[in-house]
Amino acid sequence: MSSDRQHCPRCTRPKSHCVCAFIPHMDSRTRILILQHSSEVKHALNTARLAALGLSNATLLVGEVFEQLPAVLAQTQYQACLLFPGDTALPLIAYAEQACAQPLLLIVPDGTWRKAHKILHKNPLLATLPRVALPDGLRSRYRLRKAPMDGAVSTLEAIVHALNQLEAPHNFDALLAPFEKLIDDQITAMGEEVFSRNYSK
Prior knowledge:
CATH architecture: 3-Layer(aba) Sandwich
Number of domains: 1
Largest sheet: 6 strands, parallel
Oligomer: single chain
Strand content: 5-15%
Strand order of the largest sheet: 2-1-5-3-6-4
């Protein structure tokens, strides 16, 4: 088997493009629970996995129906809320001061908008949670894809933005290092000329 086909068991990237050296180890007061739709596991970027690897207080669950949720939400040391936009969502910053008294359990669906909505539909317990949203106008650093809507960012970027708000002045931008490395590698593979012609505008 060629080395190109061998994958790192940790970051799941081909060993020739392993990003483990770029993944930090960061602690957070906020607990992050990522509910990843099973269709996202083999995504080229899989930023949810990068977030879970970089944060000591993060858990990644994969599936559509998450039977563990009742047990997770029963942990009284955390106040649970769902990071997902909607008419009833409150600005996440409104919870920042409150999070100093009781840390948050921030539940983050991971998948396309359709898959994320499916996770919400198949796990009705999520609808009972306070819903919070990030500020308007955020821009993704993923330079190789046009955002499907204004403010759309990757799961990793959403978590970084959330933690930067909740735990300021502590900064979590270091979590983005492997994400940036993956993007740079993709640009290198396609060539600067192709990138400039199709994506740089």
